[in-house]
Amino acid sequence: MVSGINSIMKGRRTAQELIRIRAFWTMVMLAIFTGCSNPFAPPGGGSGSNNKSLKEPTTPENVLYNLEWAMNNKDIQVYERCLDEDFWYHSPPIYPDDPESIQEWAKEDELTVMRRMFGQDPTYQGTEPFETIEFRFDYGEPEVEFAVSNPEEPMNDHPDEDWVVFSGPITIHLRYSEGHGWDVQNQLIDIKLRKRSDGTWAIIRWWDYPL
Fold first, then answer.
1. pTM summary value
2. Looking at residue 103, what is its pLDDT?
3. CATH code, domain with 26
4. Residue 122 pLDDT
C-alpha cells in the first residue's frame, strides 16, 4: 500500500509497482491504457448545459462546484467548461529518484484522458470506463497568487494578471461495473483559477503534490 492509496484492483498491479506510480492521474492513465478491453462499454455522462444543479462561473468557488459535479456525473462538456483555454496540468515525479519524471499536459490532452475515463471516446478500444466516480476537493480559504513574470517557468508565468489558488486534499473513489477500482485519499493539490475578460472564472493550472 502506498500512503494515501488503497488499491483494490484485482490482479492488476503489485505493491512494488504501485510504489513507483504517482497517485491520482497516473492511476487513471493505467486504468485507461491497461487491463481488459471492452469496446462495447456504454458512454457515460452527457450535457449538463441545462442542469439547474450547475452554477454560473462568476466566482472561483462556483467553478470548483461545477468541477465536482462534472466528475461525479461523468459529464465531459461541463468538465471542459471548467477549464481555461491555457490550462496546464502538472504532476510530481513519478519516480522518486528521477526529478525529471514529471508529467505535464495541456487542455486537449486533459480532455482526452477524461473522455476515456468517462467512457465518452467512441474511438477508444481500451479498458472499460469507470461505472461510478466519487470526487471531493476539501479546499481551504483561497489565496491570491499575484502577477509574476517568470518566462523560464511557463507554468508559473502570468505577468499581467493575478490568480486565485485553492489548496487541499482530494478524495476519489473510482469503480468499475464489477465493483473493483481505486481509492485515492489525501492527495494534496493546488487548483489555480483566472478571471477572464468576460468576467467568468476558469481553471488555469492543476498541480499535484507528492504523497
1. 0.77
2. 79
3. 3.10.450.50
4. 82
Query: Contact, 147 vs 161, CB < 8 A?
Result: yes
What is the Cα–Cα distance from 158 to 6, expressed in whole angstroms?
A: 37
The residues of the chain scoring below 70 in pLDDT are 1-50, 127
How many separate domains does the chain show? 1
> 207 has which bridge partners?
90, 190
Does the residue 200 lie in any domain?
yes
Distance, CA of 62 to CA of 203 (rounded, Å)? 11
Residue 53 lies inside a defined structural domain of this protein: no
Residue 154 lies in a domain: yes
Give bridge partners of residue 105 from the DSSP assignment.
89
pLDDT of residue 29: 54
Question: What's the rounded Cα separation, in Å, for the pair 62 and 67?
Answer: 9
Residues 6+ apart with CB under 8 A from 104: 88, 89, 90, 91, 155
Q: What is the pLDDT of residue 120?
A: 86
Q: 125: Cβ–Cβ under 8 A, 6 or more apart, which residues?
A: 37, 39
Residue 183 lies in a domain: yes
Domain that holds residue 141: 5-35+59-208
**What are the strands, taking DSSP E only, across 139-197?**
143-145, 163-175, 181-195
